[in-house]
Amino acid sequence: MKNRITELFATKNTNILSVFYTAGFPKLNDTVTIAESLEKSGADIIEIGIPFSDPVADGPTIQESNKIALDNGMNVKLLLEQVRTIRKKVKIPIILMGYLNPVMQYGVERFIQDAATAGVDGLILPDMPLYEYEEQYKALFEKANLCNTFLISPTTSDDRIRKIDHVSNGFIYAVSASSTTGAKGDFSTDQISYFEKLKNLKLNNPYLIGFGISNNSTFSRAAQFSAGAIVGSAFINLLKSSTDMDGDISSFVQSLKFKA
Q: What single DSSP character describes residue 46?
């Protein structure tokens, strides 16, 4: 069975742009139209956030989008229905990212099966323990042909990075700083050293850099050390203030990938 994530990385290994947004934000049914606009605008991966009431790893921008989405009535069942609708038109990889709690409430095995059936290519569940994934869920992911992406950060030991690399397929999510999500300006010398270390580890899986990607400068810098980058908070802010969503998304994606 083919997987769109592994197919993408097999054919492209630089300047990959993954864009994160929260399902059901700004409005409940925007999930579908945003995905269609992202593909049309040149994004390589769509990363849809599963809203949760206590998103502790996220900064204020994504936290607020979670609250608005939940207030709009978003839930896991509806999100999977929306993904099925997205898949009728959108061909690029779709990843669902969220905390483990809503997935456990839905039922992990059922969620994996239903996500795959809906057209999801991979999951990012940052608070899923590595040993739990290996012991309980890895076989389920493989059977459903879903990639599972783990996060690493500047404080992750080399041993753990290699362990994550060993059990991963698709790509690894390299968090740029040991902090919550959000745009933070240019990278520090410590962050650049961390990126250089990752590049020198020569991992089996490609990695994308996330947290703090907000413009062409940070995207291009991250892409010098990785297969590409993930943008989230800056895109959420754009959606929040947008008056022409299709046009604004196109301009945003182009501004990230290309210098003005």
A: E
What's the CA gap between 259 and 44, in Å, rounded? Answer: 18
Of 251, 197, 258, 257, give the one whose Cα is nearest residue 16. 257
Which residues face 213 on adjacent strands?
Answer: none
Rounded CA separation 195/107 (Å): 36
Of the candidates 2, 89, 30, the one whose C-alpha atom is nearest the C-alpha of residue 246 is: 30
**pTM of model > 0.90:** yes
Determine contact, residues 147/170, Cβ cutoff 8 Å.
yes
Place 53 in a pLDDT band, splitting at 50, 70 and 90.
confident
Q: Which residues are catalytic?
A: 47, 58
* Cα dihedral 139, 142, 143, 144 sign: positive
Q: What is the DSSP string of 57-126?
A: TS-HHHHHHHHHHHHHT--HHHHHHHHHHHTTT--S-EEEE--HHHHHHH-HHHHHHHHHHHT--EEE-T
| All structural domains of the chain | 4-257 (3.20.20.70)
Residue 29 DSSP class: T
Across the chain, which distance is largest between two alpha carbons, in Å?
48
Burial class of residue 36 in the structure, from the number of CB atoms within 10 Å of its CB (0-12 exposed, 13-18 middle, 19+ buried)? middle
Residue 55 — very low, low, confident or very high, per pLDDT cuts 50/70/90?
low
